[in-house]
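Hey,
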Amino acid sequence: MGDAFIRHIELLGYEKRFFPSQHYVYMFLVKWNDLSEKVIYRRFTEIYEFHKTLKEMFPIESGDINIENRIIPHLPAPKWFDGQRSTENRQGTLAEYCHTLVNLPHKISRCLHVVTFFKVRHDDMNPVTDSLNKKPEVFLLPKDSKRNPTDITGPIVLQTYRAIADYEKSSTSEMALKAGDMVDVVEKSENGWWFCQLKNKRGWVPAAYLEPMDGPDESEEQEPNYAGESYVVQKSYTAVEEDELTLKEGDTIEVIHKLLDGWWVIRKDETTGYYPSMYLQKAGEVNTSMKSELRNRSAPPRRSTIRNVQSIHKQGRKQISQEIYRRNSKKYILSQNKANAIRERNEPQENKAKAQPAVPPRPSKDVILTRCTESTRSRIL
């Protein structure tokens, strides 16, 4: 494999930290060419020093020789006192800066200076903390408001979940768990991998290994939608469990229930079953990089496959059987077909040919001579 380079940098938000003194760090999700994704934390003063060095390395592209040649984006200098308001207001500029940076010519976007700055450091995975101080406050940028820094949330009170079984990580971006561990969830991805933190550790964890503290069921879980949403299969999958479906790339299906563990209930013709959501893409959406990414990614485990589950709740999680999904799905389809038939019967039959008016008979010569004008009478004389 060639040298490492960055495919994408996404600003997630920022943290307000209290050790060794109060300060702010920005949170970035960095996606690399090997398809790995890392979360890093940087102070703005660090980012600005990085920017100044980059300009010195590329004086032509920074516009120092001729301003018309500038392609390296602008970045305002830090204020004498950087408080929460300036940290928040700067996010739009910073997000745009990162987007432009990774799209610069390769000699800049893939240079050692850029790659090194955005690599994971030890304190990204193990931030320095003091148990006597307050936990960092997290301010996440809503996904539908990336370009509007005024929509920043927070501070976010992170949800605490409990691990129901031991989990051994399979990559450096994941985090191992022991049954009973209490983790704070930073991000819930719909593919079933959640970004969590445990004391001074952070990483991705399968949602199936976590349970909420106040009950076995997820309050955020959506209800089934038997009307279905049209999706296209981006990666083939062969069913392992009886309640799963085997599909091939390019198949069109309908999603009828989006579950938080990343295994959605889908409908193919009259059959329903579970399928990994990360292998699906909404019909009509364009994502050219998705297919290549999916070849090296695995679906999260399902809760039904986890051994030695140790839950703190006496009742199990509510679960709808595939028989009920199929029955309700069939009922919905039949009701829609019946409604369509009634609608068609009641609609006016616009496509039927309209009756043509009859052509009147030609008047006789006597009628023309007695009733028509002199001009008309002269034509038959």
